[in-house]
C-alpha cells in the first residue's frame, strides 16, 4: 500500500479492512490502467491536509469531555475541498481520509468544480442532547475556522448530521467573520440559503443510477425487488423514490435490525412508523424481523447498502444473491468482496457514481447561493438528473472502451481528470 496519513489520536484499524488502504488500492488500479506517472500517483495517494482538533464540551450534567474532531482535505486540484461531516462512533482518521479521497474522485467524475474532503467526530449522536450536539458542532467549527470557507472547504451533512448541524456551522462561521456566509456549508435549511431537493438528493441520485442500469438491461423499476440497508437520509429517500416509481421494496433495516415483506413494504407508512419509534422498524405490521446480516443475502434484483462501510465482505459475499448492487453508502463492499462480485458478473454501481446525487445538489445549492438566485425543485432535480445520467453514460462508455468493470471505469474517469488538471496546473515536475 502506498500511503497512510499521520494518525496522532488513534490506533490503526486492522489492515485487511483499513478503508484508507482500500481507497489507495482502487487508486493504484486506476493509475495502472491510465499508466499514470509514479510521482502523480504519490501525490494523489496523500491527503493534502489532515486536521485533528480537540473539542472540549461541557455536558448537561456538568462533566467536561474532550472529543477529537477530524477534517481531511484530500485534494483541491479542481476547486474548493468538498465533503460531508460524519458523527458516528466508528469514525477514525483513516476512515475520514478514505472518504475524503473518494470525494475527490466523485466530484471529478460528476464534472463539478470541487476537490475532496471529509470530516468526522467519533460520537453516537443519540447519546447526546440537542444542546450538547450544538455545543460540539459550534466548537468543532470554531476550531476549523481557518480551514473552511466558501472558496476553501465546504462541509455538508453525512451520517449522523443533517441540515440542523449545517445551520449551526454556518452560524458559527458567520459570527466569526462578522457577516452571513451561507456558502461555507451546503445541505443547509432553506431558511438560510439551502436548496430545494438537497434532502432527498443522494437517494434520488441512487434511484436514477439504478433506473439507468436496469434500462440498459431492458428492464424498468416497476416491480423489481429491492433490498435496502439503512433507512436514514439516503436509504430512506431511495426507498421512498423507488417505491413511488413502482419498485417493490421487500426489506429495509436500521442499526437495530430490519423488516421483510415478500410482497413489498408500504414505505410511507414505514417511514412514519420509524419516526414514531426512534428508528426501530421491528413489529411493523405484516412483516417479519430480519437481521442486517440476513438482509444482505436476500434474493432480490437490487441491493442498496445505504449505511456503513465494509458490509459485504469475503465472509458473506458468496451468500449475496442480488443481481445489481448500488452503493448508496461509501465503501460498503470490501476490496476482496468486490473482486468476487466482479468475477461473478454482478453489476456493482460504485459509490462515487451511485451516491453522487448529494454532492451534485450541494454544488447546485452553492451555485444558487453565489448567484443569489434560487430555483424551484423541478429545476434542481432536472439539473441533477442531467449530471447523473451523463456521468453514468460516461462510465458505461469507459467500461466498454477499456473492458473493465464499472468501478474501475468510474475511477479512471475521476482519477484521470484530476491527474490531467494536476499536469495542466504544473504542480509536479
Ligand atoms: N447524507 C448524504 O448526503 C450522503 C451520504 N452518503 C453515504 O450514505 C451512507 C448513509 O448516510 P446517511 O443516510 O446520510 O446517514 P444517516 O445517519 O441519515 O442514516 C444512516 C442509516 O444507517 C443505519 N445504520 C447505522 N449503522 C448500521 C448498521 N450497523 N447496520 C445497518 N444499518 C445501520 C442507521 O440506523 P439508525 O437509524 O438506527 O441510526 C440509519 O438508518 C453513508 O455511507 C454516507 O457516507 C453518501 C453521499 C451523500
Ligand atoms: O454534499 C456534499 O458536499 C458531500 C456529500 C458527501 O459527503 C458524500 O458524497 O459522501
TrEMBL record:
Native organism: Nostoc cycadae WK-1
Sites where the protein binds substrate: 82, 106, 362
Name the record gives this protein: Glutamate dehydrogenase
Active site: 118 (proton donor)
Family stated for the protein in its record: Belongs to the Glu/Leu/Phe/Val dehydrogenases family.
GO annotation terms (biological process): L-glutamate catabolic process
Positions that bind NAD(+): 202, 233
Domain Glutamate/phenylalanine/leucine/valine/L-tryptophan dehydrogenase C-terminal: 195-426
Site (Important for catalysis): 158
Entry GO MF terms: glutamate dehydrogenase (NAD+) activity; nucleotide binding
Keyword Oxidoreductase included in the entry's annotation: yes
UniProt keywords, alphabetically: NAD, Nucleotide-binding, Oxidoreductase
Keyword hit for Protein transport: no
Amino acid at each position: 500500500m502506498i500511503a497512510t496519513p499521520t494518525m496522532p489520536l488513534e490506533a490503526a484499524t486492522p489492515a485487511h479492512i483499513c478503508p484508507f488502504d482500500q481507497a489507495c488500492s482502487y487508486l493504484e488500479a486506476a493509475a495502472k490502467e491510465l499508466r499514470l506517472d509514479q510521482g502523480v500517483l504519490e501525490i494523489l495517494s496523500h491527503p493534502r491536509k489532515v486536521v485533528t482538533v480537540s473539542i472540549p464540551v461541557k455536558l448537561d450534567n456538568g462533566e467536561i469531555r474532550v472529543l477529537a474532531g477530524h477534517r481531511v482535505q484530500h485534494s483541491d486540484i479542481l476547486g474548493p475541498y468538498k465533503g460531508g461531516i460524519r458523527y458516528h462512533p466508528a469514525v477514525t482518521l483513516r476512515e475520514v481520509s478514505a472518504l475524503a479521497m473518494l470525494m475527490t474522485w466523485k466530484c471529478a467524475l460528476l464534472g463539478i468544480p470541487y476537490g475532496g474532503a471529509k470530516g468526522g467526530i467519533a460520537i453516537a449522536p443519540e447519546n447526546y442532547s440537542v444542546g450538547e450536539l450544538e455545543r460540539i458542532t459550534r466548537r468543532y467549527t470554531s476550531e476549523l475556522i481557518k480551514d473552511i470557507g466558501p472558496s476553501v472547504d465546504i462541509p455538508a451533512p453525512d451520517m449522523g448530521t443533517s441540515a440542523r448541524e449545517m445551520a449551526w456551522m454556518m452560524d458559527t462561521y458567520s459570527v466569526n467573520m462578522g457577516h452571513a456566509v451561507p456558502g461555507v456549508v451546503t445541505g443547509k435549511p432553506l431558511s438560510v440559503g439551502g436548496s430545494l431537493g438537497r434532502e432527498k438528493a443522494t437517494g434520488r441520485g441512487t434511484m436514477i443510477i439504478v433506473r439507468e442500469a436496469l434500462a440498459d438491461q431492458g428492464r424498468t423499476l416497476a416491480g423489481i425487488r429491492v433490498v435496502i440497508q439503512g433507512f436514514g437520509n439516503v436509504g430512506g429517500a431511495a426507498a421512498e423514490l423507488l417505491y413511488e416509481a413502482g419498485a417493490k421494496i421487500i426489506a429495509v433495516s436500521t442499526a437495530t435490525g430490519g423488516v421483510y415483506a415478500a410482497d413489498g413494504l408500504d414505505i410511507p407508512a414505514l417511514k412514519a412508523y420509524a419516526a414514531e419509534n426512534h428508528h426501530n422498524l421491528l413489529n411493523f405490521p405484516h412483516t417479519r424481523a430480519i437481521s442486517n446480516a440476513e438482509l444482505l443475502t436476500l434474493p432480490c434484483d437490487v441491493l442498496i447498502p445505504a449505511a456503513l462501510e465494509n458490509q459485504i465482505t469475503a465472509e458473506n459475499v458468496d451468500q449475496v444473491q442480488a443481481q445489481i448492487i448500488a452503493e448508496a453508502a461509501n465503501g460498503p463492499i470490501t476490496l476482496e468482496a468486490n473482486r468476487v462480485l466482479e468475477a461473478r458478473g454482478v453489476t456493482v454501481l460504485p459509490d462515487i457514481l451511485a451516491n453522487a446525487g448529494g454532492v451534485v445538489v450541494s454544488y447546485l445549492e452553492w451555485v444558487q447561493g453565489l448567484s443569489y438566485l434560487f430555483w424551484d425543485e423541478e429545476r434542481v432535480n432536472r439539473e441533477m438528473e442531467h449530471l447523473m445520467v451523463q456521468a453514468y453514460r460516461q462510465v458505461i462508455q469507459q467500461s466498454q472502451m477499456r473492458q473493465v468493470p464499472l468501478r474501475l471505469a468510474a475511477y479512471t474517469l475521476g482519477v484521470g481528470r484530476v491527474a490531467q488538471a494536476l499536469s495542466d496546473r504544473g504542480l509536479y515536475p
